[in-house]
Each structure stands twice: as structure tokens, then as C-alpha cells.
From TrEMBL:
Keywords: Hydrolase. Residues 30-285 form the SMP-30/Gluconolactonase/LRE-like region domain. This is SMP-30/gluconolactonase/LRE family protein. The keyword Hydrolase applies. Pfam families: SGL. InterPro entries: 6-blade_b-propeller_TolB-like, SGL, SMP-30, SMP-30/CGR1_Lactonase. It comes from the Bacteria.
């Protein structure tokens, strides 16, 4: 199992020992934000510093999906199959309709601009949840250097009918990736503040989600032992898959580290996709990788 580091026997039920980790794209500046679109059998992801969004299909490989992407980062698919994107450059979250037109989902809170929306997920009720760290305004590499206008870096929820985003979690240093459990009763959020402050623990936290969209009972779920957590995904069995410096770390619902998928570049984000949902797509620094696994995303195929 040369691509794997098994820590718990349960890991073997999630991976194929002979599956090959395939590099299916390269030459990116910092690949991020993968999202799978079943209707088009297409993966979309961001190349943030290059100011573009990319497309991958089995037939065409990697091609440019959108030039001048406003420094897009995280992407997701909403319940209607539309693309929802976080933009460092716009300091906003947008929705792309099926006809290609775009609209703003969120760009401000309390009359002040957001920091730089980073990652985003869509709830089955139509609400949009996103993180808003400051990475896109710290320099001109992945956005535009600017002062922070918000009081902190929060996790926000946009109601199903739209409107102003509401902060639902306010005690992170730099909230990053986020995902729901299969029943949407739990929200996992990655803390990546150790990127600039070594005193911030590199942990994934978990929160209980109420039917009205409020969250409570935040607690540490797991700690990353190499680098920090960035993008995260939950599979249909409730396992949490996280990016890390040495690859992808897989945690059981009880927080136990089951094992690692070892990747030769620092991993930024992941998602499940492919015709049957059992391909793991990995954005890792300059490359895009794919690996066959025995898992699929929570809610597959409806939510992904």
C-alpha cells in the first residue's frame, strides 16, 4: 500500500490497496476548490494566483473554464445544480446560473465588506454556508491587499431565500474548509490559523446544527499532525476526509485517524466525483490528482 499509511483497520474498507494515485493535471500556481457536476461529468476547480477557473473531464483533461475569475477559491454545487463560488477578488460569494449569468449571493455584513470568502457548502434547504478568513486581503498574490472591515473571521449562513449573511460561528482565527455530516446535523469546520500563528492548533471542529440553521456545542473533532486542515469532505458513512501537508487524512465519525493517502505535494482540497461518485479528486499545490476509493460523498448523488 505504497500510497497509504494505515492507522486503523477500518481504513481498509475505504481504499483499494492497488489503486493508483494518478496525476491528471499539472502546471497550476495553487490549485483549490474542486467541485463535481454529475450532469456534465465535469470537475471545476480554481487556480487562485493564476486568476482562473479550470475544468477537467475524462475526455478533454484540464482546460480553462473561466479566465479572470476574480481570484476564485472554493466552489460547490447547490441543490439546483448551479455553481456557487467564493471570490477573494470580489470579496464575495457568487452563483452561476445554468445560462452562465452570475449573481451575488453575499458580499457584505452589517454594511461592511466581507474579508475574502474562502470555502462554501450548500445545505439541502437551499441555504449557503461559507467561511470568511483574511487570506485574500493579506497580499496581492491571491486577491487585493486591503484592510479588514469585519470584526473577525466568521462562518456565515445565507438563508434559503437569500438576504444578508448571518454569522453563525465567530470564534475561529481563520475558518477554512467546511462540510456537513450525511444527515446535516453536524457541521465540520477547519481551523487554518496556524498558517500565520503557530499558537493556533491545526484542528477540525464540529458543531451541532439545529433545523433553524443555528449551531451550538462547538468542540474539537480531530487534529492534523502534518501541516494544517484546509479543504474537508464528509463521505456517506460519516467519515471526514481532510487535506494536510502530507496528503489526505481520513477520520472516523468518532474522530479516530483511520489512515492517510500520501500525496507528493501539499494538499489544499478534495472532493468526490466520477460517474459513480467513487473517485477522490485532490487539488495539491501545482497538480490535480485522482484516486479510486470505496467511498462517496455524503448525499451522493443529489448533493454533489
Amino acid at each position: 500500500m505504497r500510497h497509504y499509511d494505515q492507522r486503523d483497520p477500518r481504513f481498509r474498507a475505504l481504499i483499494h490497496p492497488n489503486a493508483q494515485l494518478r496525476q491528471i493535471g499539472s502546471g497550476f500556481e495553487w490549485a483549490e476548490g474542486p467541485a463535481w457536476f454529475p450532469a456534465a461529468q465535469m470537475l471545476l476547480f480554481s487556480d487562485i494566483p493564476a486568476h482562473r477557473m479550470m475544468r477537467w473531464t475524462a475526455e478533454t483533461g484540464c482546460t480553462v473554464f473561466r479566465e479572470h475569475s476574480d481570484y476564485s477559491n472554493g466552489n460547490t454545487r447547490d441543490p439546483q445544480g448551479r455553481l456557487v463560488t467564493c471570490h477573494h477578488g470580489l470579496r464575495a460569494v457568487t452563483r452561476t446560473e445554468h445560462d452562465g449569468s452570475r449573481s451575488i449571493v453575499a458580499s457584505s455584513h452589517a454594511g461592511r465588506r466581507l474579508n475574502s470568502p474562502n470555502d462554501v457548502v450548500a445545505h439541502s434547504d437551499g441555504s449557503i454556508w461559507f467561511t470568511d478568513p483574511t487570506y485574500g486581503i493579506l497580499s496581492d498574490l491571491e486577491g487585493y491587499r486591503a484592510p479588514r472591515e469585519q470584526d473577525g473571521s466568521f462562518v456565515y449562513r445565507v438563508p434559503p431565500a437569500g438576504g444578508e449573511p448571518r454569522p453563525v460561528i465567530t470564534d475561529f482565527t481563520q475558518p477554512n474548509g467546511l462540510c456537513f455530516s450525511p444527515d446535516e446535523g453536524l457541521l465540520y469546520v477547519a481551523e487554518s490559523g496556524s498558517s500565520h500563528d503557530p499558537d493556533v492548533p491545526p484542528v477540525i471542529r464540529v458543531f451541532d446544527v439545529a433545523p433553524d440553521g443555528s449551531v451550538a456545542n462547538g468542540r474539537d473533532f480531530a487534529r492534523i499532525d502534518q501541516g494544517l486542515p484546509d479543504g474537508i469532505r464528509c463521505d456517506a458513512q460519516g467519515n471526514v476526509w481532510s487535506s494536510a501537508a502530507d496528503g489526505v487524512h481520513v477520520f472516523a465519525p468518532d474522530g479516530v485517524l483511520l489512515g492517510k493517502i500520501l500525496v507528493p505535494e501539499v494538499v489544499s482540497n478534495i472532493c468526490f466525483g466520477g460517474p459513480r461518485g467513487n473517485r477522490l479528486f485532490i487539488t495539491a499545490t501545482t497538480s490535480l490528482y485522482m484516486l479510486a476509493v470505496d467511498a462517496a460523498a455524503a448525499g451522493w448523488p443529489a448533493a454533489h
